[in-house]
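**User:** My hope is that you can spare some time for a protein that puzzles me. I have put the entry right below:
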Amino acid sequence: MTKSVMIVGVGGQGSLLASKLLGKLAMLKGLDVKVSEVHGMSQRGGSVVTYVRFGEKVYSPIIAEGEADIIISFEKLEAARYAKFLKPGGKIIVNTQTIDPMPVIIGAAEYPHDVLEQLKAKGVDVCELDALTLANQAGSSKAVNIVLMGKAAKQFDIEYASWISAIEATVAARFIELNKKAFELGYNS
């Protein structure tokens, strides 16, 4: 069975590393994997979307509306923006961090602070996590991505040790211990 995962966030949050980690994990498990990245204005703090699909045989990395098993969202507004891609029975794992988009920064719009409550009211399975606090506990605010992957790991039928192997194969050597700690904090949250 093919798993379809969307990783969404804002430029600079590490969503591309998270997708590489998930892709490496699938490869280490001998699965066919396809990854596609959509950057948008990521260098300017804009939306970043990565599609990761893996299974016995995967023909396309693209995930259509209503097809994502899991959405891993690095920011609340991004969770709302991409919720329509979630399939019935799917789950959104979301960092509770708020990052103001440009219209909010320049005063042209107001950030909708009840965005997760609105999703839940529509019946969306939302799992909230203060990944920034856990990343700081691990040693770096930049580890939010790996904390979220740790939380998401329980949604897959893949043992903990394989995730650690994927981290060791994906992350720069000097950051491995930090990322293993971040993953553990997310996994146990």
Remarks:
- The mean pLDDT is 92.
- Helices lie at 15-28, 76-82, 102-105, 115-121, 131-138, 144-152, 160-170, 176-187.
- Residues 3-187 form a domain with the Pyruvate-ferredoxin Oxidoreductase; domain 3 fold (CATH 3.40.920.10).
